[in-house]
Write a structure and sequence with these properties.
globular, 315 residues, alpha+beta, six-stranded antiparallel barrel, six-stranded antiparallel beta barrel
């Protein structure tokens, strides 16, 4: 295109239209008028993203082995057999060993919570919806994925499915500023609501302003009605700071997410909720505090029969 006055005006007009659409999309939220166009784009470009990711990823077929399993993962023996099959298909280099570990942990979490999951791989990262924190996974409606399904990995809550195409889906991450999830405190069961804060700790409003909470306490998802968008029992994170209680009805605590959102790779979409609330069963055991090393003190006591230099021993 030639650099003319008309071309410059056209460029300015297109930029203005783009910003207007982004503004309308952000303000409208879930009822965005451009949601239909977004889903259509996912249907068109989703297979391309998925194809590229499969071409450059030698373990995509191994992930598919988890995705294609439609049975409820409610027995440890079944998970162990599937995990062994995945390990056999994967190689032994450093990156592959790391991914095997991710699969191990994800299957353990699914087994502990009795979640039926579809395995998927993160194939794109970016602001697919406005400026929100999102990722694209290589599983869509053809794989049984639906909107508002819980997404987790071996560490805990990743997010929820927001948009679904035939071959791909968009996941809004738990650290997104518009992301809110009901929480339950480990052991005590105190309830609250966690909100994403980007790359900072999540903010949690505890419903009981007098609740006893300490750094190191852990939270899990409380669950949603009909298990959408959240199933119960998924680890959220660990308390790192507790605001002083000022006699208010609520109390704010700050939680480090269990998931490292900048290193997402293999995830699981919960397509079948648990029969019962797993409570704290999905939380990994807390590491034991190191035992102090015993200190040995040697005290030397002079003997009464010790000889004095220059004198006989019997004096």
């Amino acid at each position: 295109m030639r650099d003319t006055r008309e071309s410059r005006l056209l460029l300015v007009l297109l930029i203005a239209i783009a910003f207007a659409l982004i503004t309308v999309d952000i303000r409208a939220g879930e009822e965005s008028p451009v949601d239909g166009a977004r889903q259509a784009a996912a249907a068109v470009f989703g297979p391309v993203e998925k194809g590229v990711a499969t071409a450059v990823d030698p373990v995509a077929n191994a992930i598919g082995a988890v995705r294609d399993s439609g049975e409820r993962h409610n027995r440890v023996a079944v998970l162990e057999r599937e995990n062994a099959a995945l390990k056999a298909k994967l190689g032994s280099d450093e990156q592959t060993r790391s991914r095997i570990h991710e699969l191990d942990e994800m299957l353990k979490r699914a087994g502990a919570g009795q979640y039926g999951i579809k395995g998927a791989e993160v194939i794109a990262i970016g602001a697919a919806q406005g400026f929100s924190w999102t990722v694209t996974i290589d599983a869509g409606s053809k794989d049984g994925i639906e909107r508002d399904m819980t997404v987790l990995n071996g560490d805990g809550l990743v997010g929820r499915v927001s948009t679904v195409g035939p071959d791909t889906a968009t996941v809004v991450l738990a650290n997104d500023p518009d992301f809110t999830v009901g929480t339950r405190l480990e052991k005590t069961g105190e309830l609250g609501f966690a909100t994403g804060q980007g790359d900072r700790p999540m903010s949690v409003q505890m419903l009981n302003g007098k609740a006893k909470i300490n750094p190191g306490d852990r939270l899990v998802t409380f669950g949603s009605r009909g298990n959408k968008p959240f199933v119960p029992g998924v680890p959220i994170g660990e308390v790192v700071k507790v605001d002083p209680s000022r006699g208010d009805l609520t109390r704010t605590v700050w939680v480090n997410p269990a998931v490292a959102f900048s290193r997402l790779d293999i995830v699981g979409v919960v397509v079948m909720p648990p029969r019962e609330d797993p409570r704290d069963a999905v939380l990994p055991p807390k590491p034991e505090a190191p035992k102090p090393t015993p200190t040995v003190t040697v005290t030397v006591t002079p003997s009464g029969s010790a000889s004095v230099p220059g004198k006989p021993a019997d004096e």
